[in-house]
Amino acid sequence: MSGLNYLMRSTAVIVSLVVFASCSKRSQDRFQGYVEGEFVYVASPLAGQLETLSVQRGQQVTTGQPLFQLDETAEKAARDQIKAALVLSEAELARQEKLFRTGVAAPQDLDRARSARDQDKNRLDQTDWSFDQKKQDAPQSGLVYDTLFRQGEWVAAGKPVVVLLPPQNIKVRAFVPETLVGAIQYGETAQVKVDGVEEPFTGKVSYISPKAEYTPPVIYSRETRAKLVFMVELIFDAQAAANLHPGQPVDVKFGSK
Hints:
It is a single chain. By secondary structure, the chain is of the alpha+beta class. It has two domains: 31-37 and 167-254, Efflux pump adaptor protein, beta barrel domain (Elongation Factor Tu (Ef-tu), domain 3, Beta Barrel); 41-165, CATH 2.40.50.100. It is 34% helix and 31% strand. The protein has a six-stranded antiparallel β-barrel with strand order 1-10-14-12-11-15. Strands 2-9-7-4 form a four-stranded antiparallel β-sheet, with no helix packed on it. Helix 2 packs antiparallel against helix 3. The two termini are 47 Å apart.
């Protein structure tokens, strides 16, 4: 019986050593990180009531697809008024040119008429620009990550209405100890493991921080709190990036490791 107990204790010690060794090995070649998204905030430089919201959260959009439109009533009224003024100033300029050719009008009268016409044209161009800015289209293809206003709400000038996440703006940020970061090279590939996904994603190193920092709270542990780490960013092709979500914790294994 005592021999059996000895055998069991020996087996437990061996299993513990194997587990410890495997954990130590994993900690040396896999590094914690998270998925990060660089968002595109689409806004109008002008204020107005949100008249039409053409997309919803979670929708995929393509470049040039309409996103939203603000109320254009004031701009329409201003444009109609300036168009009418431009018709009158062009007619006055034509009249002054005719009088100038017959020697009746003075040169300064012709200059004033031309200046008034040019001012009306500039005002119309400005109003057309304002009119166009009330409608915003998608500057890039990507995911509608969020919408920040509902139809009928007042939107202040410059306030984002739609938040886009293009696939090329999805990246992984991993944190590598100072003693190991020297072996990582720009452009090298890395395997990114996400919980619940069997196959790892393949990324490419696009940035290595030139400055060390303390281990971020998101991967805080007693073992690493006093160590310095370097942030390394990885990018992915559009197909892989579409399956990654900002905030996801990941494990990264670099090719050099």
